[in-house]
Amino acid sequence: MKRDDLLWKAILEDIFDDFLRFFYKEAEHLFDISRGFEFLDKELEELFPIDEGSDIRYVDKLVKVYLNDGQEKWILVHVEVQGYRDSNFEERMFTYYYRIKDRYQHDITAWAIFTDNNMKYHPTEFKSAFLGTSLSYKFNTYKVILQNEDVLRKSDNPFSIIILTVLLEIKKGKLERKELIDLKLELVKNLLEKGITKRKIRHLLNFLKYYVRLEEDDAFEFQQKLDFLTGKTYPMGTEEYLLQKERKEGIQIGIEQGIEQGIEQGALLKTIEMVLSLFDNGFQVEKIATLTKINTDYVLDILRENGRV
Asked: Which of 110, 130, 204, 308 is the most exposed place for a label (fewest CB within 10 A)?
């Protein structure tokens, strides 16, 4: 799975409550958000197995959400992260619907979020008719490129930062390097002014940093300005970050290898975080080795243990 896909999957889980509040004005009355959510990725994969080597260019999520009346509701979210026209999209949405409905026998609300730059591409419905038999399946859609940036900036909902980030990525090819850096920093300032929890700020900062990618020198300049702007208060702490990665991606192996090489553990934690951050910002292995003052073989070990290569 590609980096943008992983970013979308992660952020949907991190702030799914804000996703609901963003798209449903009556979310607090409709859903029992206090009960949390169950993300049914494994169950979705069983319904829709992916062939090895296939070039999947969309993200799908299936989430169990409780209603305030005590019932359960299944929400299917499709997020197009690559930005492309798909002539079979409507039928695929319908296929998801009937397979999920057949298995779970619960109500479903479906969302398709389009992040492409084609203003005319906006499928909303699947229709089929043959010899007097017909059906029509409509689903909720959200076309990012059609959204009003001023309205999004004024929104208190953290999910608005995700949409603004996607809009910036769409138009970044038309921007000068300094303008792009400044606009990314403006998004950071907008985020910090929303009065949300530090945990959510960390998740959103990571999405912003890695979704809108910069050239090596620009990424370094952005990081310096980001550190100054936040006072290094909000980005995920080294130990917290690495404990999370250890649980998800087996980073402990990398730590043990580093200790065997005589690297003090505190310094090692910072080194691993720096290697991953530099790589996610587009730096080459040789450049990372130079900046972190470790050999290229160990850089590759860290990247492999964390699923980067």
From this structure: 130
Per-residue burial over 82-112, b if 16 or more Cβ lie within 10 Å, else e, is: ebeebeebbebbbebbeebeeebeeebebbb
pLDDT tens sequence across 218-228: 888 888 888 88
Contact 66, 34 (CB under 8 A): no
- Catalogue the E-assigned strands of 59-107: 59-66, 72-80
Where do the H-state alpha helices sit in 193-264? 198-211, 216-230, 238-249, 252-260
Supply the pTM of this predicted model.
Answer: 0.73
- Residue with the two structure tokens 């907008």: 190
Q: What gap in Å lies between CA 150 and CA 292, rounded to an integer?
A: 40
Strand partners, 134: 129
Contact status, residue 203 vs residue 10, Cβ threshold 8 Å? yes
Radius of gyration, alpha carbons of the chain: 21
Is-contact 144 83, C-beta < 8 A?
A: no
Q: Which pLDDT score, from 0 to 100, does residue 216 have?
A: 82
| Alpha carbons 14 and 57: distance in angstroms, whole number | 21
> Strand 37-39 vs strand 59-66: parallel, antiparallel, or unpaired?
antiparallel
